[in-house]
Specification:
It is a single chain. By secondary structure, the chain is an all-alpha fold. The chain has 2 domains: 93 residues, Helix-hairpin-Helix base-excision DNA repair enzymes (C-terminal) (Endonuclease Iii, domain 2, Orthogonal Bundle); 100 residues, Orthogonal Bundle (Endonuclease III, domain 1). Helix 1 crosses helix 11 and helix 2 packs across helix 3. The longest helix is centred in the middle third of the chain and has 18 residues. The two termini are 23 Å apart.
């Protein structure tokens, strides 16, 4: 079986297990999605969804957020971790959106990645889920699963994104990245994973997974 054939077979299984994939982060518009994704760095979506309503009740648009003291933002988002850096980024990007983008979240990778605290993965999520632009955001979970399933070499997230984009047509990227995340949570976790019981690893997993010699990337 070629890697392309394996990729398509895995896609069919993902569609079977997760035909519907709502965006896991609570949001109302591109701005609140941008902030939620920024908060999710090294933090679970569940925790972000617990914290973000308090922040958005205070300010859910760039104009309102830009006048909130950084210290107040930090206090609210502290449970998400990295609160000093994240609070400064939230305040800073809100001011930039007002000053340079008429208070709107820009619809380009370049403009998004120029904002404080916004890397390629965050920009990809916003482009995909807020604007419907084909993107394949690769976080540590997708990076790990793509390696386990032999869809990528696992050298780094940049290479994994490149490999996945070559394997799948662009019209599937936005849904696939969420399907992989949901599948990882339900059947292919980072710890305590049994490849023999995993619906995908049991069929398509790397041989190392079954020899006990596998090292996650």
């Amino acid at each position: 079986m070629t890697r392309k054939e394996k990729a398509l077979a895995i896609q069919k299984l993902l569609e079977q297990y997760h035909p519907e994939v709502p965006v896991p982060l609570k949001h109302q518009d591109p701005f609140t999605l941008l902030i939620a994704v920024l908060l999710s760095a090294q933090c679970t979506d569940e925790r972000v969804n617990q914290v973000s309503p308090s922040l958005f009740a205070l300010a859910d648009n760039p104009a309102a957020m830009s006048v909130i003291p950084v210290e107040q933002i930090q206090q609210i988002i502290r449970p998400c971790g990295l609160s000093p850096a994240k609070s400064k980024a939230i305040a800073g990007l809100s001011q930039i959106l007002l000053r340079e983008h008429d208070g709107q979240v820009p619809q380009s990778f370049e403009a998004l990645e120029a904002l404080p605290g916004v890397g390629h993965k965050t920009a990809s999520v916003v482009m995909a889920q807020a604007f419907g632009v084909p993107a394949f955001p690769v976080d540590t979970h997708i990076h790990r699963l793509a390696w386990r399933w032999g869809l990528s070499t696992g050298r780094n997230v940049v290479k994994t994104e490149e490999d996945l984009k070559k394997l799948y047509p662009s019209e599937y990227w936005n849904k696939l990245h969420l399907q992989i995340i949901y599948f990882g949570r339900s059947h292919c976790p980072a710890r305590g994973h049994n490849p023999h019981q995993c619906p995908i690893c049991s069929l398509y997993g790397r041989k190392e997974l079954f020899k006990g010699t596998a090292k996650n990337p």
